[in-house]
Amino acid sequence: MKSLSIIASLALLISSVVAQEGATVPVTTSAPSTYTCDPNTCKIENNCLCASTSAPGGLSPADTPQFVTVTYDDSIQEALMATALGMVNVTNPNGCPGHGTWFVSMQYTDFSLVQQWYAAGNEVADHTFSHVGTPSAEEISSVKEMLNAYAGIPYSKIQGFRAPFLNYTKDTLGLVSQQGFKYDSTASAVTDDMYWPYTLDNGLANDCWTGICAAGQVKLPGLWEIPMYSVLDKANVPQLMDVYLAGTPADTTQWSQAAFDKHYNGNRQPFGIYVHPTHLTTYPGGVDDPKEKFNAVIDFIKSLAAKPDVWFVTNQQLLEYMKKPVKASELGSQTYMQCQQPVIAQDICNGLDDDHNGVIDNGLINSCNFGTTSMKTCFNCPATAPSLSNPVPASAAQNGTAGYRNRIGDNCDTTWWDPIGNKCLCTTADCEVKSVAVPKSETPSTTNSTSVTPGDAVKDNGAAQIAGVSTAVMAALFVGLSQLL
Ligand SMILES: *[C@@H]1O[C@H](CO)[C@@H](O)[C@H](O)[C@H]1NC(C)=O
Ligand SMILES: *[C@@H]1O[C@H](CO)[C@@H](O)[C@H](O)[C@H]1NC(C)=O
Ligand SMILES: *[C@@H]1O[C@H](CO)[C@@H](O)[C@H](O)[C@H]1NC(C)=O
Ligand SMILES: *[C@@H]1O[C@H](CO)[C@@H](O)[C@H](O)[C@H]1NC(C)=O
Ligand SMILES: [Zn+2]
């Protein structure tokens, strides 16, 4: 089922965690952080922010919103998407739906679902083309090409990266920066290093025990790091992804609650729930039905969402906040926290059920078959299967023939782009949109249509078995459980 690869040994650690996407993470280390940053020279006006455990903007914890980021890794497929949607099926304090971020790898991904995920207000980010531990430049760049060509995501909205197996290196982060990404979210945070997101102008401040924080290692001005915040299990072992796999539903709920409380009753650093949806998805005839685990995770999520100052956000929304922090009471009115959808009378292939007949993109989705693989998309099927060297092959259809789909341009957002009509339905300041906000804890009500400027419009698998290893050893083991789904 899995193969173990031991890839490094160094440094003193007390205990460690093993994740499929992951390395061992020590609870305490002997290697001191060499990170230094002067907030007088590193200022947010210049897109620079020092790593800090304190809330941005000098806000007191009581005034600071508690963000929860739910993130998903690997391919987007139908059964996985249902699981993922269930995990952000909450209402934020301003009545807008909660949202999450999916780090997508390309193999086995259904691009029509990617588009629907994004159209609902969620974020898509880059997890490499074929889920490799040491990605080439093409492994990273091809994802952007494909998400744009086959899911109609504007290049400017693809901003994040997470390394497969959480196996990031200085070189990988360099590529991510070169390719214009705005953030990485791969580094792990345990206790002392529970930093709010920060820029890498002064290097990394997380995972310092590996040596990555040392001078001359990473220095990438303007690139943000959104650390992955771990959950400590009962043996005090940091669990990073798929926490629920390490214990019974009752156990993992308790560990997760304790970790959340540490954030919520502390400096309100964002709290993360990081999953491979496949582990919470019930498959027909599946052997170990995770239904009980899934229900426990959903109950935990709903309990968090019941708090008046807890917000389920995408990583991009979190970074918008970092750039201009406001009190929790003002968050709901920020532009990036709104939830509006276009008012379009007929279904266009944009990831939404425009005509409200219960079917998204009714009859408009292309099914592309290449013999051994297939994919679905609102855009043209390529003549051959996409590959790493040719992620967007020439289209099978000829321009000018019926049903030809046109790629989205830089000046349009996904939900306004009609690939068949070849036009952007929102190019002026008075596009008709409707809010999908509902009063919290109440039933949906009819909402009024309003006008907004285009900029405001709409929005802004691996099997991860976590095996806790609790050891007092002199050698740190980087253990990657490598498996591709
Ligand atoms: C969201 O929650 C509602 C109410 O509990 C439920 O009816 C609906 O099926 C859920 N949707 C998803 C996608 O899980
Ligand atoms: C992680 O990256 C290192 C350095 O590039 C590489 O040697 C190793 O094979 C990678 N591990 C995995 C699991 O891909
Ligand atoms: C297809 O044809 C339309 C109309 O002539 C044109 O606007 C569009 O740019 C063409 N698309 C491509 C990819 O050449
Ligand atoms: C819709 O707008 C009207 C007029 O501004 C207002 O009276 C009404 O309460 C609004 N309805 C909702 C559901 O917001
Ligand atoms: Zn992955």
From TrEMBL:
Gene3D superfamilies: Glycoside hydrolase/deacetylase. Residues 1-19 form the signal peptide. InterPro entries: CE4, Glyco_hydro/deAcase_b/a-brl, NODB_dom. One of its GO terms (molecular function) is hydrolase activity, acting on carbon-nitrogen (but not peptide) bonds. GO terms for biological process: carbohydrate metabolic process. It holds the Pfam family Polysacc_deac_1. This is NodB homology domain-containing protein. Residues 66-183 form the NodB homology domain. Keywords: Signal. PANTHER family: CHITIN DEACETYLASE-LIKE 4 (PTHR45985:SF3), PTHR45985.
